[in-house]
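In keeping with the milestone schedule agreed at the kick-off meeting, the structural modelling team has produced records for the first pair of proteins. Each record is given below as a sequence line and a structure-token line. The laboratory manager (R.T.) confirmed that both were archived under the project's standard naming scheme.
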Amino acid sequence: MSTPRSTRMNLSAGLASVIVAAALVGLKLWAFGQTGALSVAASLADSAMDLMVSLGAMAAILYAAKPADEDHAFGHSSAEDLAALGQSIFIAIAAGAIGWGAVNRLLAPARPRWPTNPSAWWSWAPPSP
């Protein structure tokens, strides 16, 4: 059984996690838009999953903090376990999508494209003559 203090601490940690993940998603969206790099897309997917997982964790923490009732004699703490299962499935699906994209790029090589944004030039080395 969680106390009001521990519930507040859990929610504060969850909120901080959501704020940081949202900031990272925004920055990585911008970086992916500038570079189109698959590595940035993979990192963006990771941060987006972190954001969704953090939001799900906050919902689970709120639900798990409910006191025991007629239907749940031992409380609602199983909500956190179910949230973790859902998060694991989501991560596995995202990993498969990233792997699929990487394999497709490796098997169907396209002509290298030059970045159109000058700030991205530093990260792309031209081929040697």
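The second protein of the pair:
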Amino acid sequence: MATEKNTPERHQRPISPFMIGPYYKPQLSSILSIAHRASGVFLSVFGSALLIYWLVALSQGAQAYQAAMLWLVSIPGMLLLATLCFAIYYHFFNGIRHLIWDTGRMLKIEQANRSAIFVLSGSFIASVLTIATVGGWL
């Protein structure tokens, strides 16, 4: 039960959902934290759907499998695969970053920002290398 001592009206300050905007300036770490959650949802929804689609096509025979593979090499299919590739690398690298934070290390702002840049650049480089390797360009 709320008491007068801890009610928002008494302190005249907003509660959490209303912090972004005039009260809180988003930082790189907070944006990447939200993106980490979003990438997990994206991987769960679209990665699972794509895997199920591919497995069903595989089980339906050569014609259905060929149709699925033709869609995967189309522009929308390749964009989805590239986005999934980046999302999985991003989620992996940022997950490692969060595990390091859980040990109490790299919590200073400079270190957190440096690790954020590493996560983004590492995700991009790993994605480009994976796509180039799978595409036969390397």
